[in-house]
């Protein structure tokens, strides 16, 4: 459930709020840490969702019998 919530919010931010334009802005300024590493910083949301989905799948498949 957490993974679905994270990926839904992230996709909404990309699509509706225009976060994708900020991330992919080639001619934008690169002054601060977030601006210089915006692709990697914001992709952490997707990686976090994949991690939570993998943990849940592992718990489902590897539960004690």
Q: What do you see in this structure?
A:
This protein has 65 residues and is an all-alpha fold. The protein has one domain (2-61). It is built from 4 helices and no strands. The protein has helices spanning 2-15, 19-23, 33-36, 38-61. Helix 1 (2-15) packs antiparallel against helix 4 (38-61). The longest helix is centred in the C-terminal third of the chain and has 24 residues, at 38-61. The protein starts with a helix and ends with a helix.
Q: What's the total count of β strands?
A: 0
The average pLDDT score comes to 90
The best one-word shape is elongated
Q: Which runs of at least 5 residues are low in confidence (pLDDT < 50)?
A: none
**What is the percentage of strand-forming residues?**
under 5%
Span from first to last CA?
A: 24 Å
Helix vs. strand class: mainly alpha
Estimated radius of gyration: 16 Å
Write the topology of this structure.
Layout: H1 2-15, H2 19-23, H3 33-36, H4 38-61
Spell out the key features of this protein.
single chain, 65 residues, mainly alpha
Quickly describe the structure.
The chain has 65 residues and is mainly alpha-helical. The chain has one domain. The protein has four helices and no strands.
């Amino acid at each position: 459930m957490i993974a679905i919530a994270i990926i839904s919010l992230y996709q909404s931010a990309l699509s509706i709020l225009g976060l994708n334009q900020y991330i992919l802005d080639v001619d934008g300024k690169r002054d601060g840490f977030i601006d210089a590493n915006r692709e990697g910083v914001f992709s952490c949301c997707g990686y976090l969702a994949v991690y939570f989905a993998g943990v849940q799948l592992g718990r489902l498949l590897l539960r004690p019998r």
